[in-house]
Every structure is written in structure tokens, then in C-alpha cells.
Amino acid sequence: MAKRDYYDVLGVSKGASADELKKAYRGKAKELHPDRNADNPNAEAQFKEVNEAYEALKDPNKKAAYDRYGHAAFENGGGGRPGGGFGGGAGQGDFASAFSDVFDDLFGDFMGGRQGGGGRRRASRGNDLRYNLRITLEEAYAGLQTTITVPTAVACGTCNGTGAEGGAEPVTCPTCSGMGKVRAQQGFFTVERTCPTCNGAGQTIKNPCNTCHGAGRVEKERALSVNVPAGVETGTRIRLAGEGEAGLRGGPAGDLYIFIEVRDHELFQRDAQHLFCRVPVSISKAALGGDIEVPTIDGGRSRVKIPEGSQTGRQMRLRGKGMPTLRGGASGDMFIELAVETPVNLTARQKEILREFDKQSEGNNPQSSTFFSAVKSFWDGMKG
């Protein structure tokens, strides 16, 4: 069976440039790779055909010979068979490099991905840190300026974060030539591993710093000033850019995230920007009405008028006496909820007065009348 034209195999014109040839080869190799075409019995043969075509056309001398003589250029010792697989011959390193690019595209994600800048990892960003800060409701209302102490890794002052003694620059790793990874040919595949000399950093330090032992950072506690804005709630997150863990070998620092927790208050309950305060009142005050004095979150006090005949659970609103909103705007409201209190430890005279009051109060308890009327209807219905 006659061989197909190499340009047709790659799907390019005869005047294609080296970059166009390489791009076409990579596309075809990825498309026809046997691992991606388990259900295509011809995939392996087509894949080898693509490899053979590219090996011939990638080399300028072989390409010139092929353009002049066709397939006859590689027959009877005419320059070596281009389809000789992964064996020796001129240009072998170039072909291995091109195939390793395809290997990276096919399996890069599985192997950890390709790294930018030729795979070098000279410096790495520091980790982000979390700090939990508990504050009072009053502090959440007014805002807070405080200082926190954070244990973290900071850039080594002895080597200025380089990890090398005297602040000297690290040198390129001789094993991987700064790539951070090494490749080995194993039969049909090129296998890539993290460089054992530099552990993937791409660089080595001849004389490590005695203080940080080559890491470029040391453990230390830092005092930071934190501005907590008014209106924060539990779960509010404050980000301090660059205040996290120092980067490795001079890399950028991470960020510090402060998570706010607002403690429970003994007088006020919070719902977003609104506050609730449960206030006990005597039976006589609830029945006759009158004024009471209630606290506010800013430390002040407000007078509230209780209407006659108030029941437990009745609410009254104090506008603007709640919590400020975090991003500005109007403050929330404060709600006063009444709790009518039953007196205890009555004297004989008090009991006598209450019995007399009870006799005179028939028809003055609307909730009781409504409830027991409903109960009577229920029982009558059950009898029916």
C-alpha cells in the first residue's frame, strides 16, 4: 500500500512553517493518541503515521530531501527511515521534546499541570491566615480599634527572605536546569517527576541561612492594629491584605482574615440591624398604663408610654435605636416587648384586695372570655 503524502498526513500545505508543522503535529497526535481512541482499531497505526511524518518534516535537511525526492529520499539508506520510532538519529532530542509537549497536554492535569515560566518555582505565596475575634454588642454598635497578636511566619531578617547566607541569590538547580522537574524516557512514554535535588523549586542554595535554614522565613508573633467598623455581625469577615504568612524564599505574603463573633447580651437580642428588649411590668402598670424607662445600646435611656390594658407580648418601637448598618445608611429600630409579671409572696391584705378585685373584674378580661367561649363551643361540638 502506497504511503500517504506527509503533508496530507499532518493536514498542512507544502510551504508550512516549522511552527505550523509543530502545531499540526500536536493537534493530530492528541486527536489520534491510542489512549483516547480505545474503540478505534486504526488509531495506533494512524498515530505512528503522524509521528513518522513529523519526524521527517521537522528537520530542515530531511524536509528538503522529502520535498525533492518524496518517500524515496528515505529508502535504501537515503538519510535514514523517518519512521524509526524513538531510536537514535539526528534530531532525536527535538522529537522527544515535541512529543513531551503532547504528553503534557494529554496528561498535564493528572501529573500536576505544567508550570509557568519554564516550570520554575523560585518563590511561593504564603498561606492565608484566620483569626477569630470576639467582641461585645456594644463594640459592634460603636466600632472598635484594637490590637491583636498573630503567630505567623515572617520573612527572615538575616537573609532578607532569600534563604541564603548573607542574602545571596539562590543558584539554578544543576539537575533540572531550573525546570523543577526531570524527564525520563520509559519506552513509548516520557515520564516527568519532581526534581529530587531541589524538590521542584528549580533552584538550590549553596549556603543556607543559619537563622531560617534556607526557608527564607521564621516563626514569630506580630502585633497588628485592626479597625472593626460599626455594625459588624457574627460571621463578618475582615481581610488584611499581605498580613498573612510570609512567602517562601521571598514570595508574596498571604492575607489575614479576621472572623468576627459578637457575644450574646444580657439585655438585648439582635436580629440583623434591629434590637429587641423584653421588659417586665407589673399587673397594675399594665392595667392602668403609665411610663417606664428602658436602656438603649448606646448607654442612654428612653421613656416609653405603656397603654392601658397592655398584655404580655405587646411590642413598642423606638425608631433609630437599633444597630447601625455596616455600609452606612439608617440605623435599625429597637423593639420593647412587655412581659406582664405576676406578683409573688403576697401578704394577707394583698390577697384580700386581689380577691375583691377579681369579683369586680368580671367582663374585663377579653382574652379569657374569648378563650373559654371557644372551649365551650368545642365541648358542645364533641357532645353532638
UniProtKB/TrEMBL annotation:
ZnF CR-type span: 143-221
SUPFAM superfamilies registered for this protein in UniProt: Chaperone J-domain, DnaJ/Hsp40 cysteine-rich domain, HSP40/DnaJ peptide-binding domain
Free-text note on domains in this protein's UniProt record: The J domain is necessary and sufficient to stimulate DnaK ATPase activity. Zinc center 1 plays an important role in the autonomous, DnaK-independent chaperone activity of DnaJ. Zinc center 2 is essential for interaction with DnaK and for DnaJ activity.
CR-type domain mapped to chain residues: 143-221
Every J domain range: 5-70
Main localization (coarse): cytoplasm
Keywords from the UniProt entry: Chaperone, Cytoplasm, DNA replication, Metal-binding, Repeat, Stress response, Zinc, Zinc-finger
SMART domains: DnaJ
Binding annotation for Zn(2+) 2: C173, C176, C195, C198
InterPro entries given in the database record: DnaJ (IPR012724), DnaJ_C (IPR002939), DnaJ_domain (IPR001623), DnaJ_domain_CS (IPR018253), HSP40/DnaJ_pept-bd (IPR008971), HSP_DnaJ_Cys-rich_dom (IPR001305), HSP_DnaJ_Cys-rich_dom_sf (IPR036410), J_dom_sf (IPR036869)
Function: Participates actively in the response to hyperosmotic and heat shock by preventing the aggregation of stress-denatured proteins and by disaggregating proteins, also in an autonomous, DnaK-independent fashion. Unfolded proteins bind initially to DnaJ; upon interaction with the DnaJ-bound protein, DnaK hydrolyzes its bound ATP, resulting in the formation of a stable complex. GrpE releases ADP from DnaK; ATP binding to DnaK triggers the release of the substrate protein, thus completing the reaction cycle.
A biological-process GO annotation: response to heat
Similarity remark: Belongs to the DnaJ family.
Gene source species: Roseisalinus antarcticus
CXXCXGXG motif repeats: 156-163, 173-180, 195-202, 209-216
CDD domains per the UniProt record, alphabetical: DnaJ (cd06257), DnaJ_C (cd10747), DnaJ_zf (cd10719)
Cofactor note: Binds 2 Zn(2+) ions per monomer.
GO CC annotation: cytoplasm
Protein's name according to its UniProt entry: Chaperone protein DnaJ
Subcellular location: Cytoplasm
Chain residues that bind Zn(2+) 1: C156, C159, C209, C212
GO MF annotation terms: ATP binding; heat shock protein binding; unfolded protein binding; zinc ion binding
